[in-house]
Amino acid sequence: MSLETLLHSFKDFQSSDPRDRIYALYGLANSPKSGQISGLPSLTPDYNRTILEVYTDFVMYCTRTSGSLDIIVRPWADVKRTPWQSESVEPDLRFGAPSWISVLGETPFGGPKFEHRTRVNGDSLVGGSLQRIYNAHNGTIADVRFGVDDAPKGFTSSLFARGISLSEIEHLSTHMADGIVPKECLEMIGGIIRNDVGVICNISDSL
Q1: Of 43, 45, 46, 50, which has the most beta carbons under 10 Å away?
Q2: Nearest to 146 by CA among 100, 180, 183, 184
């Protein structure tokens, strides 16, 4: 199995050092190694590197071996979205993940460290690494680069991807929770039918 597939399969397993989620599986993976593909980063264990550096290399590795950006929306990282504040955590492990590193807390039930019995997040838009739900890119290889490519003095936590602009967001609605669609959202999509004096008289059947 590829490294990306292995990590997805063992995503509920924990490690004392977040970097070992990558390092422990790298030798087991049936994936290309550094030097076999142009621009492929090395994932050989090196504990002098920060979590951000290791995780950036992993995401870069996945995008360049799979040609896909699926990894940026598939939860896998056992870190927090915001940095730890506890003094009991080693300074170099106080790590806040950028938006393109999808954390386990964003899985449907909040990840293995949570005790949620009800769904708190939606399913991944892309499914598992072996169960691709859609193929919107139609086989086009992802053209992606990371802030580190342009910043030899350090990481910028930035990811740049070339794509096609299909449209622009014109309106934002309020949050829709627990399947409740507020009136504001219905107004935006034209689902509310009003009479001549503006009083709601029906809801469109097309909804």
Answers
A1: 43
A2: 100
- Asked if residue 83 lies in contact with residue 96, where contact means CB atoms within 8 angstroms, the answer is yes
Whether the CB-CB separation of 114 and 103 falls below 8 Å is answered with: no
Q: Give Cα 109 distance to the centre of its chain.
A: 15
Given a contact cutoff of 8 angstroms between Cβ atoms, the answer to whether 4 and 129 are in contact is: yes
- Give the integer Cα–Cα distance in Å for 14 and 17: 9
For position 48, what pLDDT does the model report? 92
Residue by residue, DSSP assigns 49-86 as S-HHHHHHHHHHHHHHHHS--GGGGS--B-SBSS----
CB 51 within 8 A of CB 79: yes
This prediction's pTM? 0.71
Q: In the structure encoding, which two tokens stand for residue 52, read together?
A: 């951000």
